C-alpha cells in the first residue's frame, strides 16, 4: 500500500507531503521540506498545531483523558510503581529488574551529597530570592563542580544520577538555609522520597518521624509530574539541548521555564487564590459566580486544563491521595476547608461541567503539599524535582536521534521595509 500524502495547492502547483501516523493513530503532515519546495513556511503561534519531534516517551490524549509513560497507564504506575522506578522507566525506556533498580538506588545514594563549597553560594543569595531562581542557578553551577567524564556511557549514567539525587538534596538545603537551620544530610537507609522529607523537616529539637502514608503521597505526586509530553519546559529543554549544551545547563533552562506562573506555578497560585478568598471573607458560591462572569477579570486557578478536555487523569489520582493525607494528618486548616467546599460546589455546577472545568492536578497537589508542610514558595521546586526524569529522558532522546538538528524556528517579518539611515543631527 502506497504511503498517504497531503496535497497543498499554491500558485497553481500541487505539492505532496507525507502523512505521518503515530502508534496511537494520531496523524501529522511532514512539512520539513515545505519551504525548500514551495518557499512557504507555516505560522503557528504557541506551536499548538506543530509537532516538534517524534517521541516514544509519553502519550497523552486530552479528549479521552489518557496519560501513559512508555505505554504504561499513569493509573497503574501511581498504584504500583515508585518515583525511583518511574524515573528509570522514563530515562532507560524499560521497567527495571530487581538488579537494575538496586544498582540505580546505590548510585542515587552514592551521589546524593553536594560539594561543601556549593553551600557558600546559598549564603550569597539575597534572603528574598525565589527558590526556583536559586535552583536554576545551582543546577547550572553543577557543571563546574562535576565536569563530564571521558567515557560517554559512564558519563551519562553518572550525570543523570547526580542530577536526580543532588537536585533533591539542593532543594532541601535551600529550605533549611533560608530558615537559618542546620543542613540535614541524606541518609543511605531511607528511600528517595523519605530522604527528602527527612532533609526538609528533621531537626535536633524535633526529629522527623517517617510516615509511610505521607512518603507514598510524595512518591505519587512526583510520579504524576514526571513527564507530560512537549509542554513549555520540556520544549525548552529540547531546544536548548539541540545546541549540544551540557545536561546541567539544559536542565537549568527547563527549571527557568517551569518557574512561570502559567506553567509550574499553577499549584502555588491555587493556594494564593484560597488565601485571598479567606482574606476577603467571600463565600465559595460567590467565587464560583465571579469565575463564570465573562466580564469579571477574576480567574479561578486549579480548574480546567490546556490539553485535557475531560477530567485530568492525574487529578483523579491526586484527589485520592489528598483524601488519604488529610484524613491521616487530621489537620484543621481553613484553606483546606475552603478548597474542599470549592471542589464540591464546582463539580455540581452546570457551567463548570459543560465547559469541562474539572479540578486539575494543580488543585489537589497544592493542597497535598501544604498539608505535608511544604512552604508555598517551594511548590514549584517540588514540581521541578518530579519533572526531572522526563526532562532527562526528552534530552537523551533528542541527542540520540541522528536526524536531530539545532532548533531554529522561522518567523513572518512585519516590521518596516528597507529604510535609509538618518544621521542624528537630521532627526526630528
From TrEMBL:
InterPro entries, sorted: Citrate_synth-like_lrg_a-sub, Citrate_synth-like_sm_a-sub, Citrate_synthase, Citrate_synthase_AS, Citrate_synthase_bac-typ, Citrate_synthase_sf, Citrate_synthase_typ-I
Domain of life of the native organism: Bacteria
- Pathway as given in its UniProt record: Carbohydrate metabolism; tricarboxylic acid cycle; isocitrate from oxaloacetate: step 1/2
Q: Which UniProt keywords apply?
A: Transferase, Tricarboxylic acid cycle
What name is this protein filed under? Citrate synthase
Q: Which family does it belong to?
A: Belongs to the citrate synthase family.
Residues at the catalytic site: 305, 362
Task: Give the UniProt record's GO annotations in the biological process aspect.
Answer: tricarboxylic acid cycle
Q: Which GO terms describe its molecular function?
A: citrate synthase activity
Q: Which reaction(s) are listed as its catalytic activity?
A: oxaloacetate + acetyl-CoA + H2O = citrate + CoA + H(+)
One cellular-component annotation, GO: cytoplasm
The record's listing under Pfam families reads: Citrate_synt
Amino acid at each position: 500500500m502506497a504511503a498517504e500524502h497531503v496535497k497543498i495547492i499554491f500558485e497553481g502547483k500541487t505539492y505532496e507531503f507525507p502523512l505521518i501516523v503515530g502508534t496511537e493513530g494520531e496523524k501529522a503532515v511532514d512539512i520539513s521540506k515545505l519551504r525548500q519546495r514551495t518557499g512557504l513556511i507555516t505560522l503557528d503561534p504557541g506551536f499548538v498545531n506543530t509537532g516538534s519531534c517524534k517521541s516514544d516517551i509519553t502519550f497523552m490524549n486530552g479528549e479521552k483523558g489518557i496519560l501513559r509513560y512508555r505505554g504504561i497507564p499513569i493509573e497503574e504506575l501511581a498504584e504500583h510503581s515508585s518515583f525511583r522506578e518511574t524515573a528509570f522507566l522514563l530515562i532507560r525506556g524499560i521497567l527495571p529488574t530487581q538488579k537494575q533498580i538496586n544498582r540505580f538506588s546505590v548510585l542515587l545514594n552514592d551521589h546524593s551529597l553536594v560539594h561543601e563549597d556549593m553551600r557558600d553560594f546559598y549564603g550569597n543569595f539575597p534572603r528574598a530570592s525565589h527558590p526556583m531562581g536559586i535552583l536554576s542557578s545551582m543546577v547550572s553551577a553543577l557543571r563546574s563542580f562535576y565536569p563530564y567524564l571521558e567515557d560517554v556511557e559512564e558519563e551519562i549514567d553518572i550525570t543523570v544520577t547526580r542530577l536526580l539525587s543532588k537536585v533533591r538534596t539542593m532543594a532541601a538545603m535551600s529550605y533549611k538555609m533560608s530558615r537559618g537551620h542546620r543542613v540535614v544530610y541524606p541518609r543511605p537507609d531511607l528511600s528517595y522520597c523519605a530522604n527528602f522529607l527527612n532533609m526538609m523537616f528533621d531537626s535536633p529539637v524535633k526529629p522527623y518521624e517517617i510516615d509511610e502514608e505521607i512518603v507514598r503521597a510524595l512518591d505519587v505526586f512526583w510520579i504524576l509530574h514526571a513527564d507530560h509530553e512537549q509542554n513549555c519546559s520540556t520544549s525548552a529543554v529540547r531546544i536548548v539541548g539541540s545546541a549540544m549544551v551540557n545536561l546541567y545547563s539544559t536542565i537549568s533552562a527547563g527549571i527557568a521555564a517551569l518557574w512561570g506562573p502559567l506553567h509550574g506555578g499553577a499549584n502555588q497560585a491555587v493556594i494564593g487564590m484560597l488565601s485571598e478568598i479567606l482574606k476577603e471573607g467571600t463565600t465559595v458560591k460567590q467565587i464560583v459566580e465571579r469565575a463564570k462572569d465573562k466580564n469579571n477579570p477574576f480567574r479561578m486557578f486549579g480548574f480546567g486544563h490546556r490539553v485535557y478536555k475531560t477530567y485530568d487523569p492525574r487529578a483523579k489520582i491526586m484527589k485520592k491521595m489528598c483524601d488519604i493525607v488529610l484524613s491521616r494528618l487530621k489537620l484543621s486548616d481553613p484553606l483546606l476547608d475552603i478548597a474542599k467546599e470549592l471542589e464540591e460546589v464546582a463539580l455540581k455546577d452546570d457551567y463548570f461541567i459543560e465547559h469541562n472545568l474539572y479540578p486539575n492536578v494543580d488543585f489537589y497537589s497544592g493542597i497535598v503539599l501544604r498539608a505535608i508542610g511544604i512552604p508555598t514558595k517551594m511548590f514549584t521546586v517540588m514540581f521541578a524535582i518530579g519533572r526531572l526524569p522526563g526532562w532527562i529522558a526528552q534530552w537523551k532522546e533528542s541527542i540520540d536521534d541522528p536526524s536531530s538538528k539545532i532548533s531554529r524556528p522561522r518567523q513572518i517579518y512585519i516590521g518596516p521595509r528597507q529604510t535609509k539611515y538618518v544621521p542624528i543631527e537630521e532627526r526630528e
